[in-house]
Amino acid sequence: AQKITQTQPGMFVQEKEAVTLDCTYDTSDQSYGLFWYKQPSSGEMIFLIYQGSYDEQNATEGRYSLNFQKARKSANLVISASQLGDSAMYFCAMRGPSGGYQKVTFGTGTKLQVIP
Amino acid sequence: ETGVTQTPRHLVMGMTNKKSLKCEQHLGHNAMYWYKQSAKKPLELMFVYNFKEQTENNSVPSRFSPECPNSSHLFLHLHTLQPEDSALYLCASSQDGRESDTGELFFGEGSRLTVL
Fold first, then answer.
1. Are A21 and A112 in contact (CB under 8 A)?
2. In terms of CB atoms within 10 Å, which of A60, A66, B22, B33 comes out highest?
């Protein structure tokens, strides 16, 4: 079984500062994938970044980077130069091995508020 | 615009009503999903359809009835719901089956359901 843990219910960050959102996971699969999604108040879940378990380098997408520490089973999201539009819920998620449909497990989320 | 459209965006119904939620994806994906999002709980996977065949039913009560007439359309039929069924219902799609697929989920904006 897969499990995602996000221990920060809420976070504040000053505009233009960097922030790290924590995520730890548990799985018995050797091959898996990790995702971060953003959910603004409108409700839509927006894909931010993906890390495969066999990827040797940390994933980066613009201002988002994923700090992947496989041995510690952590996949923290780092947002650099925070903007007011970054205020939203952030969810960490994981899937099992590729192939067939994907059963994705989500964490409980972290509410990020960017302060002007 | 993620290519996944859900209607209606908001729905209020009584416990004796019958209503349906609709989801349509324009991405050519082969898998579609229904998730339930309640306050302060992780997203709960309800149903998965892969190539129009239901591959997952996550112990969902029979008052929720999914229908997938083709790979682009997914419905969730609702009848005799309970107030605790009030939640945001999210539809998603993904392309899976190839080793190169990340399994990223593309979500709609959700249907906010209130059961009186």
1. yes
2. B33
pLDDT computed for residue A69 by the predictor: 96
| Contacts with B, A 78-97, CB within 8 Å | 91, 93, 95
Q: Are A106 and A52 in contact (CB under 8 A)?
A: no
Amino acid at B19: K
Instruction: Write the residue in A4, A33, A45 that is nearest to B103 by C-beta.
Output: A33
Q: What is the CA radius of gyration of chain B?
A: 14
From residue B10, alpha-carbon distances to A62, A66, B114 in Å are 33, 34, 8
At A98, the pLDDT band (50, 70, 90 cuts) reads low
Tens-place pLDDT, residues B28-83: 998 899 999 998 788 999 998 887 777 777 789 999 999 999 989 999 999 999 99
pLDDT in tens, B69-115: 998 999 999 999 999 999 999 999 988 766 566 778 999 999 999 99
DSSP state letter for B101: -
Q: Answer whether B102 sits within 8 Å of A50, measured CB to CB.
A: yes
Kind and range of the H or E element at B11?
Answer: strand B10-13
- How many whole angstroms separate alpha carbon B37 and alpha carbon A108? 10
Q: List the one residue out of B11, B80, B9, B90 whose CA is nearest residue B47.
A: B90
At A53, which amino acid appears? S
For residues A82 and A14, give the distance between their C-alpha atoms in angstroms, rounded to a whole number. Answer: 7
